[in-house]
Amino acid sequence: MELSTIAEAKNNLPRLIHAAEAGGDIHITRHGRPVAVLISEQRYQQLFNTGKAVFQAMMQWREQYGYVDLTDEEVDSWRDRTPAREFSWD
Description:
This protein is of the alpha+beta class. The protein has helices at residues 6-11, 13-21, 41-65, 72-77, and strands at residues 2-5, 26-30, 33-38. It has a 3-stranded mixed beta sheet.
């Protein structure tokens, strides 16, 4: 993992692109905090397609099992009710 400020990235973009193409992840920072990541197209496609696979699996599950009819009380019963998890919509 390589860190680069926005100014450095602006001045060294060709070098950073070559580093990303070689498999490196370039984290771009502003005031010391990461704000963006430069990755290769190949890595982007791997990550992007993984998300599609998860979505497609969810859609297949929905097609296979259909609609699940649950009452509000059933869904509410799944909530974690430990004291630190108190919550109210009111």
